[in-house]
Amino acid sequence: MNAEKKPYRTLFLSTFQLSAFTFGGGYVIVPLMRKKFVEQLHWIEEQEMLDLTALSQSAPGPIAVNASLLVGYHVAGIPGALITVLGTVLPPLIIISVISVFYAAFRDNPIVSLVMLGMQAGVAAVICDVVVTMAKGVLSQKRIIPAVMMVLAFLAAVFLDINLVIILLVCGCVGAAETIWRDKHQKEEQA
């Protein structure tokens, strides 16, 4: 019985701490979840985390909540998913509730404004780390199509200002077509 509670407690505390001390949203919390669940706890493989991240980005809703839900489900089923979602949404809910009570004092405080400005620089650095880490993961597979799609998606979003939903749909279709082609090709080789 204690062995069953420990993963739930660890899941809750991990996602609670990550959510409570992370500023910048899902793009910041996902690499920290990777470090926690892949590198420290060894509950998830690197490739599985990349897949869970891709799913969490393509599903509607906040990336941090989607990622925690998928990680929790992967580790401990439906109870794990519920626990990790609770651990992820509780800190912002508490923080926003406290801030709303003292909103007038926070709004005009120059120190708070400077702290928030400094956090933006930290968030930018973490997002750059996410991009580099995920790009290394994609490039380490040594597959042409995912690498080309990654570059084209970046160019389409940054320079051509194409809607991200369109980019995600195109990447999803290309990825599905490539997977179907690869599976068919592998079956033909085995036959």
What is this entry, summarized?
The model has no long low-confidence stretch (mean pLDDT 85). This protein is mainly α and 191 residues long. The chain has eight helices and no strands.
Polypeptide structure, described:
The chain is mainly alpha-helical. The chain has a domain at 2-109. It has eight helices and no strands. The chain has helices at 2-20, 26-40, 46-58, 63-101, 103-107, 110-140, 144-158, 164-190. α1 (2-20) runs antiparallel to α2 (26-40) and α7 packs antiparallel against α8. The chain is globular. 19% of the residues are buried.
The total beta strand count reads 0
Largest sheet properties: none
- Give helix and strand order, one letter per element, not per position: HHHHHHHH
Residue share in β-strands = under 5%
Which geometry do the CA atoms define?
Answer: globular
- The average pLDDT score comes to 85
End-to-end C-alpha gap = 47 Å
Q: Quaternary arrangement of the chains shown?
A: single chain
Radius of gyration: 19 Å
| Low-confidence spans | none
The helix-and-strand class reads mainly alpha
* Helicity level: over 70%
Number of helices: 8
